[in-house]
Amino acid sequence: MASLVNVVLGLAGIALGANSILSGARRLSGGSGGALRGRPGLGRNAPTGSVRPTIVVPRSATRGLSPIVSRGKHVGTMAGQMRVTTREVRSLGDRLAAIIDMSEKGKIDPKVIAWARAAVSKKCRPGWNGEQWCVKENDTKGEADAIFRAMRRDVRYTSDVRGFDTYAHPRKTLEMSAEDCDGFASLGVAALQAIGIPARLEVVALKGPRPDEPAHIFIQAGIPKNGPVEEWYSLDATVPNPPGWRAPDSMVTRRWIFETE
Fold first, then answer.
1. Which of 11, 15, 151, 152 is most enclosed, with most CB atoms within 10 A?
2. Residue 48's domain is classified under what CATH number?
3. Between the CA of residue 132 and those of 129, 148, 192, what are the distances in Å?
4. Domains of the chain: total
């Protein structure tokens, strides 16, 4: 694939193009240069849990979006006002800059905050002490599981626009109820951070005809949320596996960890 790739980006916001491991769709383009320069090895808080080569990329390496090629007009749609902006990207780091930028906007968006809080605030039968919440207060893993279930319930995995990698603002992902794995990633990071949970993104290259190219992206939640992170808990809502499932080394040739704030 060419080194210069058109990417759609905007309020419709349209997201990354790393595809579901099980979908067999096209692989994400972009090399390992540019903003991908990061420190190798372990993250600040925990091992990566993998024997595969891993690059940990700090947020400082993914600041700044790629140049705009064209900016569309706002159009009224069934999902509200939307605008499509086309950008050019040259590296995986450029793509992650767009996803993380969307997630950081999303974590302070009222619609996303309300959706995330609703996901963790369902009521169950009261206990002996009057507690009535299905997810106990300050149960970080329980809250992360609730966000995972809400994404599986409210967003359908749907492929990108043909010929483009697309990136959505988390609000638009909720309004359209459809995205691919990069949209799930942006929404998931925004929702976790909206309720105080640290989050980061993992990108993997998979065994197959292009083993060195990034092919899939998913979320990791930092547990516990109060204090140093002891575990990075994977949440891949684009595949029919439970929370905690992570693409195993038997499927993976290389990993990238992208940090957020």
1. 15
2. 3.10.620.30
3. 9, 21, 22
4. 1
